[in-house]
Each structure stands twice: as C-alpha cells, then as structure tokens.
Write a structure and sequence with these properties.
Blueprint: E1 22-23, E2 30-31, E3 36-39, E4 45-47, E5 51-53, E6 59-61, E7 65-75, E8 81-89
Parallel strand pairs: 4-8
Antiparallel strand pairs: 1-3, 2-7, 3-6, 5-6, 7-8
C-alpha cells in the first residue's frame, strides 16, 4: 500500500490578467511620437509610413500627426495577394 494519499487534479487555478490588446488610437485621432497605436498578436495590421513595428508586433508612432487606416493588397509567402490594413501617421 502507498503511504501517500492520491493527489487530485486542481481545476480553475489559472487566473491570468488579459493582455489589453487592440486598437488604442482610431483613424482621425492625433498622436505623439512613441505613442502606441495598436497592440496585437501577430501581424493583423501592417505598419506604414510614420509608424514602426515593435518586437511583439505593437505599432508605435514615429512622429506627431494624425492616425489613418487604409486597406492595401499584400503578397503572402505563397504568392497569394490578400487585403491587409495599413496604419500610417500623416
């Protein structure tokens, strides 16, 4: 016989905070240099003119201006062209 009681499985122990992802500044809003425009997982939105892409795919403003969003065609790895949203600061 075992001298240790059987350990049961514990459920509902994961209580992690959300990552607060999403669009922080919408089209037409003013931005300052270094301000976060979009926090995302993966490259759902592309960084265009006046913006830069961080290591975790966060899009930052490189200069003061107004945020604009537009759709444009992007070629994927397989050669297929798809529509993607591009974020720019003008």
């Amino acid at each position: 016989m075992s001298h240790v009681k059987a350990g049961g499985s514990s459920k509902n122990i994961h209580n992690n905070a959300g990552q607060r992802l999403g669009v922080k500044l919408f089209g037409g809003q003013k931005t300052k240099t270094g301000q976060v425009i979009v926090r995302q997982v993966g490259l759902t939105k592309r960084a265009g003119e006046g913006t830069s892409l961080g290591r975790n795919y966060t899009i930052h403003a490189n200069r003061d201006g107004v945020v604009t969003y537009r759709k444009r065609k992007v070629k994927t790895f397989t050669g297929k062209t798809v529509w993607r949203t591009e974020v720019t600061v003008q």
